[in-house]
Structures are given as C-alpha cells and as structure tokens.
C-alpha cells in the first residue's frame, strides 16, 4: 500500500456487495483510493516531511502545473525509509513511489485524464517473532523466553530452533536460512474519459497494471523465497443519469483479465514444496441500477449484475522430503544428514544436494557426506484445470430523508466470489462463495456538519456449497506436513486429521 497512499483526495469505504455500482465484482465491500487530480489554471507545489525513531524519514513532494487554459499536469512523489523493528533487522523499509497525471478539458462536456505510476518496495519488510515451542517428544508447549522484538534470524532464535528434533529427517533442525529481502516493483497506466451528454454521463476507465515480486521472507519461522509476475488489464464503462428527478438510472459493462506467473518455496528444512504455477482470470460483467423517487424525500432502488468468470490454473507443486531410513533409536538417527536448502526449482535442489535417482521422479539419494542414511522422496502434485462460473446478483433498497441532514435506509444485497484451485491433496478445487447482506441504518449530521452520528444493524450470511466431493482423509501425509519444527505433536499426530 506504500505505493498508493500519498497525495490523496479521499478514501471511500463502501461495505457490502457493490457489484451493481462498479465494474469489479465486490463481495465484502469496495475501497476506492482517489488521488488528487490536476487542477486547471493553478501552478503550485506542496512538501511534507515526517521523521521518527528507527531512522525513519518520509518526505512527500507534489507539483501541480497549469499547462494551458484547458490542461494541467500533477506530479507526486513519496519515499519511506526506516530501520528494522526486530533484532535481526527485519521490519525495515526502503520504498518509493511516483505518480504523474495529465488532464485535458476538451470542452464543457468532455474531459480526459491520463495517469501513470511506479512504486518500489524494498528493505526487509516482513517480520516475525517466535511465540512458543512444542517439545516433539512430550508434546508440551513452552512459551518463548525471548522478547517480542527478537527476530527469527537472531542467533538466539536459531539456538532454540536447533534444539527442535525432526523425526522425519532423523536429526535436529538448523537456524532459518536467510537473509530476507524485498524487491517488489509495481507500475500501471490508466485513463478516465468523462463525456456529459443531455441524456446522461458516460465514464470510461481503461487500465493496465503489472507487478514483479522478488522476496525472501522468514516471518513464519521458515524461509519462503518468491518470484512472481502479475499483469492486469481492464476496461470499465458506465452510463448514468443525473442524480435527480423521479427516475434515475445507471448501466455499465466491465472486462477484466489477469495472469499470474509465480514460483514459491516454503522451506521447512525436512520438507519443502516448490509451487510453480500460471493462473489466469477472465471476467466479463454487465450491471444496472434504477432508482425511483415518487417524492423528493423517498427513494426505491433496484439493481442487477451478471458476472461471467473463467478461471484457469496450470502448475505443479513438487514436495521434497528429507527422510531418515535409520531406526528411530538412537536419537538423532541421521545426525549429519543434509537438510533441504532454499531453491526455486528441482534442478537447484538436485545440484545443492547432489541428488541421484533411485526411482526416477519419485525417490532420490544424496551423494553429500553424511547423507548415506537418508533418502529424498519427491511428491509431484500437478493441476491443469479451468472452470467457468456465472452468477446473477442483485440489490434492493429504500431511503428516506428524515430531515435535510438525516437519512434512514434499508438494503438487501447479494454477492458472489468465484471458486478456484489450490495445491491441496484433499480438495484441489473450491466452490464459489455467495453472500446475502441485509442492513438497516441511519446517517445524520448536526450542528452545522460538526457532529456526525451514524448507526447501522446488519446481518450477513455467507454460503459455500459443498459441491465438490471430498477425498478420504490421509492422516499419515498430513502428519508429515505438520510435524516440522515441533509445532504439532508427531507421536500419533494427536488432533491432526
């Protein structure tokens, strides 16, 4: 969010489904972050500077330039830097962002705004702290003796984790592999075209955004390298009447396409999945809302939305397991066995561990010294699926002006969120979610707008049909997945299904 929260005009928070007002399907609500736009006929600048502890420095610079009687530009820049909050230096930030806008007022009826932005998040942003440890032999949970500001890469945390035994690998764990880093880059271009006609106002919003993420996070007590590229393209068009008169209306259409190419590793040392995936969403929607005001103080509204979502997922999760073949006793049974290193491909694992096939693509041995008692099973979980979801959602509401600055309202809205896919053995696909949202409330302003009093009662009901068959539980595999670092009891996996 560093890259958007600067030079703001306002932030709108709309609770509940908003699919009959805006292009993007919103189930729980919509947050509109609106920057200040270029001002015609004004040349001015602004500057703000915040400083704080942990070496924090946070300047913001804004310039508004009047280019002609009918055009203007606005430039904004922000920078944030501070040291880490944790003892290992995590929680730090070194980020900047910039936005450029150009506004052309063609005539009284037509305006065109073009904007571009770029943001970079750096530092070691994600931070975590060790809360407790579970004894893998007795199951007893002991609170961490360390303070909350001791980060997971601190040698004191490493010493505690080195005392945690893995029955899977047959040896004690090692400190978390690092160092963490954040190198995330975001950019986008968009346009806002507004054409006011005698019939209504047409608003067209084309947009394209991209992101490149390169992270290594240790906040969750294991290493999590990430390499991801995202692209989004969308076009939203709305044609709306003026908000006055007995009959008011809005009609719109929306097109959205997103692709994500990503590689993640979740390195738990004795077990590590690498998820290599390509996923996409193609969404098309039409929406409309009509408001009838028989008298000035009373309004009835109704709306409908049709959404068509196509989800595709093509990827594979490769889980490498470090398994000790020796008997459980003595402990440790494989004291010198290598643990799984950080990697973003099986080839990197193979090179670092010097793997050789015992059963190709299923079971490997390691030529590293001390690895004679260990084998490395490889579990492949591929997904290559697509699903199409369609849904009609609606809005119904009434409003009554008790006074000039007092509104009483009630509404009933439905919402929908498409299903999708996940690398899960038990349930690799999940169904859509549906929402029915009921609300009644009042919004009031008193004392010349100096006092605002709002009250609302609401009831939301979520529903996700169980229309995808569940597979039988695999107790043994789930135990293996959750045994790492002694967070759960391995002996019989009590409480783990």
Word description of this protein:
The structure is a single chain. The chain has 497 residues and is mostly beta strands. It has an 18-stranded antiparallel sheet that branches. The chain has a two-stranded antiparallel sheet with strand order 1-2. A two-stranded antiparallel ribbon has the order 8-9. It contains three helices and 26 strands. The C terminus is likely disordered. 25% of the residues are buried.
Question: What is shown here, in short?
Answer:
By secondary structure, this protein is mainly beta.
Fold blueprint:
Blueprint: E1 8-15, E2 29-35, E3 44-52, E4 56-68, E5 71-82, E6 93-105, E7 110-123, E8 132-134, E9 141-143, H1 155-161, E10 165-166, E11 171-172, E12 181-196, E13 201-217, E14 224-240, E15 247-265, E16 271-295, E17 298-321, E18 323-324, H2 346-353, E19 355-359, E20 363-366, E21 374-403, E22 406-417, E23 420-421, E24 429-430, E25 433-446, E26 451-463, H3 475-482
Antiparallel strand pairs: 1-2, 3-4, 4-5, 5-6, 6-7, 7-12, 8-9, 10-11, 12-13, 13-14, 14-15, 15-16, 16-17, 17-21, 18-21, 19-20, 20-21, 21-22, 22-25, 23-24, 25-26
